[in-house]
Q: What sequence folds into this?
């Protein structure tokens, strides 16, 4: 005959297991909330609050930050330079050798598209005839070597909230 060696405390184990399971689920959820990085950290308002290294406007494009610099000086109807500086989210320069890019500039008067070519380090450069007005909008498309094209929209000369 076999004798049971069950101890009276063993009868409570199912309750302890359920309590432990619930505690672990709750703890896991809490840790998820604590460690979650809000996606709002890189919205346009946040990026506009940053001081752009080259005096332009910064926007996100996939895993990249793009800084668009348009120039106000020059005569109307004459080509003006356009520059895009490429960094990662930490501000580390991303080499543009082998990259291709375009910028489309839209204003109340016209629409113009220009090709941007690598111009050292993390810069892409081109030129186009555009009116440097506050309503100027830009769409930049950048294709880094071996990557898909990424786009960002800019309002480079619009007044910024401070």
A:
């Amino acid at each position: 005959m076999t004798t049971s060696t069950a101890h009276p405390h063993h009868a409570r184990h199912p309750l302890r297991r359920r309590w432990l399971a619930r505690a672990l689920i709750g703890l896991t959820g809490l840790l998820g909330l604590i460690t979650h990085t809000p996606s709002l950290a890189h919205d346009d308002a946040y990026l506009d609050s940053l001081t752009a290294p080259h005096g332009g406007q910064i926007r996100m494009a996939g895993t990249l930050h793009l800084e668009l610099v348009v120039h106000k000086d020059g005569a109307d109807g004459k080509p003006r330079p356009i520059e895009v500086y490429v960094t990662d989210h930490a501000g580390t320069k991303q080499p543009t050798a082998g990259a291709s890019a375009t910028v489309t500039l839209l204003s109340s008067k016209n629409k113009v598209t220009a090709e941007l070519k690598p111009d050292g380090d993390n810069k892409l450069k081109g030129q186009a005839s555009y009116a440097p007005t506050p309503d100027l909008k830009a769409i930049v498309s950048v294709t880094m070597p071996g990557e898909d094209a990424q786009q960002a929209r800019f309002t480079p000369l619009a007044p910024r909230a401070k």
Q: What stands out?
A: DSSP finds two helices and eight strands in the chain.
